[in-house]
Amino acid sequence: MYKLFITSIFVLGILTNLFCQSFLGKQHSLQLGEDDMMALYSGAQDLDKMADFFFALDYKDVENKVKANGLNPETEDMTIYVDGKKFRVDMETMGQRMSYIVNLETKQVYSVMHDQKEYIAMNLDEMKAMQAQVKQNVAKQMEGMQGMMENLPPEARAMMEKMTGKKKSAPPVVTATGKTKTINGFNCTEYLVSKENEREHLWITTKYSGLRDVFYEMATAMPGAEEENAMWEQIKEGWPAQSAELRGKEDYMEGSFSIHELYSLKEASHKAGTFDPPAGYKKKTMQEMMGGMPGAQEQ
């Protein structure tokens, strides 16, 4: 579920469209965990030098290197439907066929599990309130653990403070390199983004320029997207036809590399019901879904 939400954040930057138009898009993604990532890179363990290596590769380059090294990365192929302030992405993730639907007109978000014929419905305002409540609960728990917090290594303490909101992340640094490239018919300009322990590489296109404005509206509506919003406030126009993220290893998190490419986008009409949960599927609450996960009942 968390993975689906994270994936949707990138999708928001790609599949949004002009309020008066409808689109059908195709996107593929590839993600490498730390071991596979380091199988491709043999240089110095420096995040910026690693970024220089990985960001020089396009999607096909990464696929070829992965194949040549006999790696088995996590991949996704997505079908994207957009109609004004509504979008849907169909994907197969972790062996499950899923859809993620957002309707900004009604502020409804649906996570659809096709194999189970079930879906979760949530309201955007409720999602933001839930996130705020989680942060508040964690912060209260941390108040009673100050002694333990003081004995944690600096990196672990900083991570806990960030989780509770006591420590704010430094704003991302966005650099326009001036380089240009054509990707799947999209004329693009290169941007590099530096975040804490993370680097991002964007090829931005201004084709269908209204996409960027709608993306920004969708991104600001989603909870937990403050860092992404800060990045897009610096990129004044366009949207990514290709993006890549490189995360360095931390004490409690492995490093990773992922690359995403929109390889098709065309105007298209969508049949009725595309942006609604399928008829006959059972509606479930988040609590019911979590209760069915291994370990969810353990205290």
Can you tell me about this structure?
It is a single chain. The protein has a single domain (2-291), classed as Lipoprotein localisation LolA/LolB/LppX (outer membrane lipoprotein receptor (LolB), chain A, Clam), CATH 2.50.20.10. Helix content is 34%, strand content 34%. It has 10 helices and 12 strands. A 12-stranded mixed β-sheet has the order 7-8-9-10-11-1-2-3-4-5-6-12, with helices on both faces. A hairpin with an 8-residue loop joins strand 10 (239-247) and strand 11. It is globular and about 55 Å long. It starts with a helix and ends in an 8-residue tail after the last helix.
What is the total domain count?
1
Q: The CATH topology is what?
A: outer membrane lipoprotein receptor (LolB), chain A
The rough form would be described as globular
Question: What low-confidence regions span 5 or more consecutive residues with pLDDT below 50?
Answer: 1-19, 293-299
SSE pattern: HEHHHEEEEEHHHEEEHHEEEH
Binned strand content: 25-35%
Task: Report the C-alpha radius of gyration, rounded.
Answer: 20 Å
Q: Which sheet architecture does the biggest sheet show?
A: 12 strands, mixed
Count of alpha and pi helical runs: 10
Tell me, what is the CATH class?
Mainly Beta
Distance between the termini: 20 Å
* Integer average pLDDT: 81
Classified in CATH, the superfamily is Lipoprotein localisation LolA/LolB/LppX
In total, the number of strands is 12
What is the second-level CATH architecture?
Clam
Sheet with most strands: strand arrangement? 7-8-9-10-11-1-2-3-4-5-6-12
Helix share of residues? 25-40%
Structural class determined from secondary elements? alpha+beta
